[in-house]
User: Fold these one by one.
Assistant:
Number 1:
Amino acid sequence: MVRLKNSKKMKITFLSVGLSIFSVYAVGQGFTLKQCVEYANKNNCNITNANYDVDIAQKKVNEQIGSILPQIDASGSYTDNLKLSTTVLPGDLLGQPGTNISVKMGTQYNVSSGVQLSQKIFDPTFGVALKAAKLSKEQTEQMLKQTTEKIQYNVSSLYYQTLVIEKQKNSLQAAFNSSRVTLESTELKFKNGMARKIDVDKIRVSFNNTKSQLQQSELSYKQSLNNLKYIMGMPVDSSIVLLDTTLRIDVPLPNTISDAFSINNRTDYQLQKITLSAYEADKKRNMSGYLPSLSFNAYYGTNAMRNEVDFFKGGLWFPNSYIGFSLKLPIFDGL
């Protein structure tokens, strides 16, 4: 008999739990504040754009590092001289003094190819430019942090605002139901001669006011919930239910008041510091541009000249190559 009662209790418990879960999903997906914040971190467009800016800044750093690595370029050209250029030579060269002889120089088809290597040996602007790129990346990271903090604050504010409006709406709904019962009871008493007309009118005015407040509260609740979904990056036509009404956050207390209100903990202050450092780096970059720079260059290529397009059927190819150093010393840049 005891086992039978326990089994019935378990069935009733599972049934109640199942009904509660079904009721939540029938209305919409349940969201806690933590889930709302996590959803916003993944879907808010401002946070997404800030993440893209961080990726772009990292690519700029990689690009700056790549500029100091060896640069290798391959080149090739094909030329079809439709009309060869004519050069006038003095006849004395060919045993015809006193005359000029017209001679066409070159061949109709020319092909050339080559590979060039360049390597910076000393560039005073590289270190400063790399530092500026890293500062830009750090700035975008701080902006991402600032944007995330703002979105999380807005989500939390709208979350609790929506819950407060929902509580007010429920309170007004209870007052509306009570006022409706009172109005119906008073009207019945008036029909039976047990109440006055003025009493019915007073209750009806109160009933209409409560009804109007309830309708306004429902509109405010929908608007606040839509604003929350917009900040989260969720489609407005999605159905969600806010689950928890309270949230406890365990935050370690600071040792002193100065620790709690340290200006170094503020993201906007960190952004200002990074911006100042970026201006200083840009100034140093401009100043280092007046220092000499040295680079190494090497080239190897080959070319061929034909009157027919038979470059790969034999014939001579003429190689050429060089190595050298390039020194650049700025003297005057027009002020």
Number 2:
Amino acid sequence: METTVNQDTHLYPKVQIFSDLEALSAAAAEFIATISRKVTESTGNFSMALSGGVTPRPLYALFGSTLYRERIDWKRVRIFWTDERCVPPDHPESNYKLAFDSFLSRVSIPPNNIHRIKGEASADQAARAYERDIRLFLGGPAFPIFDLIILGVGEDGHTASLFPASGAAKERVRVVAPVYLEPPKLNRVTLTLPTLNNAVQILFLVSGKSKQNVIKEIVEQGNPHHYPAGLVQPRQGYSMWFLDNDAANLLTQNNYR
């Protein structure tokens, strides 16, 4: 069962709460199908940046199902990624592989419409190549404009590969930044905060009780710890948060109208 949480001010993001991840994913698929149709009818193409992780897996499986293979005009969709680990495209931890196996290999999308981050290169090389690719196809003044960016939230409040206190989270000039982590963690490449905030639409997908504390702080308490996920506030359009009951467990409904 879905609960819609509406706000009168811009102090809080727009929130919808669902019974579980399955219901959340079905609603997200409908939401994306609807806005992709509207955008393609208006501009001819739809640009979408995907996130990795566990939460979007059911959504991507739906994209690859019979229903959404036909409902979304994949020939007019350009697929990008919010971030990637520095691994080859066939590596089990590759965000590209997750999307490719789930739906990109099953839908009628031209190969040239798939803009993966070349994680097999070094973090800096991959970041620079990815930024060139984004600018080539999306342009934009200082920062490109994505029609939709799908994001998740970590237990530490990170989103994409923008981790708290990291250099990439503080980047304000580059469109794409390298992320260097201590071994055995893998280096990464990520869209920067100004790039995220230049999107027309942000859709957060969050599930699980392990996220409930950070969700409470970001959604209701004004992000006092300055979590990167809470700094995503698009200048045009708005951010939508799809939460399951577990992730939304600590939210106080009296804070909303």
Number 3:
Amino acid sequence: MNLNFMKWLMYPAAWLYGLITRLRNLLYDRRIFASVKMPVLVIAVGNITAGGTGKTPFVIALAEFLTGKGFRIAIITRGYHRQTKGQVIVADGQQILATSQQAGDEPYMMAQKLSGVVIIADADRVAAAQTAVDRFACNLIIADDAFQHRRIDRDLDIVLWDRQAAPKDEALLPAGRLRESLCGLQRADFVVFTKSDEIPADQQACLQSVNPHLKFFAAPLAITAVCDRSGRAVAPADLALLNVLAFCGLGNHMQFEATVRQLNLNLVTFRRFSDHHKYTESDLRHLVDEARQMQCPFLITTEKDAVNLPKTVQESDKILILKIELKLDEKLKAAVLENVPPSSDFIA
């Protein structure tokens, strides 16, 4: 069936979804639904579109930057697709306390990359923030994927936007990728164009027409390393002109595929899985067999997918992990600091 026709079929559901989100936002705007103010700083990082904006690398970069400025950071997150309920302390600032199954792939990956940062998975962000303050004496909360989670009040709202997505062409779920109307950007302070080192003028003008007070920044992604599952680095020159099978389970497969193409490879075959896919040994056997048939000596995946791989699989040395890092430019760092008092002003 034609994809455009399918999209049109989704518009009645999108209209109903938009009505529900507008009503919910109105109830918060009129303070009929109350937002809870925390005794410490809260920075919300989120999307107005569904997935694929580089949110996890951004949260990691932001936490590293603010930790370096003397803040005692806690990241609070829902922990999608985890096999637990309630609140889970993923990391206490000293060690990782939960498995990827207990924490969810993204919180676990953040815990692997960040030292000195408390990470708490809980659908109730207010309860998670209170634990961060009461139990761990944190004085700055980063609320991950929380732009629509209005129950917790925030001091700074940062919305990430994938520069490959044209705002004027986006529609509400399920007809498009918008989690709420673009009017929701009236609540935002910053829009960060991720995966780019420039701010597209046409997209900025479109989003600024919704909220003239928005500040705009760019945050590019860069490949930092290619490693095997034991952590041994593989020189990009060793991959030159090879055939490779690349696979991922992400909200935005295209960004990963574009990043893989930056390597000097001969032929790349891509296999896509659903976001947060938990790979089975059978999945890996099929991928390895397919790679062998296509004369691909290596398979490449993302750090997030690596968390979801089974721990024991034959020929795991053939699986390479593409490591990326998001860069915060100096203008963005300065703008963040302008909106938060010095860490010494907030003693939890």
Number 4:
Amino acid sequence: MNVLELTLGIISATGGFVDLGELIFTAQAGASFLYSLLWVLLIGTIGIVVYGEMAGRIAAVSRQTVFDSVRLRLGFPVGLIALISSVLVTVLICGAEVGGIGMVLQLAFNLPYATGVLIAGGALLVLMWLLPFAWIEKTFGILGLVMLVFIAALFFLNVDWKAAALGLIPSIPVTDTPAHLILYAYFVVGILSSVMLPYEVFFYATGAIEEKWTVKDLSTNRLVTGVGFSVGGMLAMAIVIAAAAALAPRGINPELLGATALESIIPFGWWGLLLAVAGMGFAIAGAAIETCLSAAYIVCQFFRLPWGKSKSASEAPHFYGLWVAALAIAVAIALFGPPPMQTAEYAVIFSSLALPLTYVTVLWTGSDRKLMGEHVNGALSNTVGMVFLAIVTIVAVAAVPLLILTNTGQIW
């Protein structure tokens, strides 16, 4: 197997786990709650590996994407509700990511934020128009691995490894004030939502078809999801641990990307800062491309219109028009909407509302023996899938009330 095939999972991981929303929740979780929320990342990583593998297997066996299944399983009216909600939150996330690139350019080159956003929008337009899917996948999958600097930083920080290990065990603070418990619950919901964002499975399943996977690629699918998403999980955990070790003792609240980058400048100096900013830029850019393309993919798939990066603009005009429109709206959100960090936080929380419909469809389709034949979900996949479906349903119900109760995470 070509090792570069793993980058489909890696771009989904670094651009799905460690996008702007994940940077917000993980860095603030470490700075505010030290190591006690690591278990949420562990559970979320297992969940996205299970559903990512399922979505990739469905695509390889049946050539169905998630929104092919949504229309077939849920019917047109309910499916349309799922489509509209998914498109709205996906474009909102894209707007946050474009704004995030603008912030990275501002940090790196001292550019005005608006100039950085316009440069980001123009660069993304050119890259997505000219590069084939495989090049987009491999380029940002590999460049996003610069984020490994956050893992390297752990070995030079004063990490309490015993406390970090205990943080992998699910727990609830029992001595905190009610307000602090509510804030803790908000971060649990936010981290789980950001790890299991719906667009990750949209993009991954679509990518499997773009790469022309078949039944022969099922072992690759398992390896890609297992390794790729696990890389993202480890990076997210590293950010939490580094924030607990480097930022919390100094009373730094990482509300801005520059504060998150301090996690690597403390042990490595300016080279660490450079690598951290570059890694965040590549990961956020990968997420911007994923979300922009995903918005176009799911609309075309639902309405059975021609789609795919392998097609020209004349062969798939709706697909190209939709992703260009999604990018234009994202740039407008970045320029005229709330600050990118706030936009990303809202996007992650509201994305949780689309989780149950997305995942119930994937589980339902993967369990269809008539469609999947011998590659149908086994008892373990169905059991674990049902457990995570219950989890994301609880998350969807709790997300908005917690957003309101905590004033977007501001109460203490």
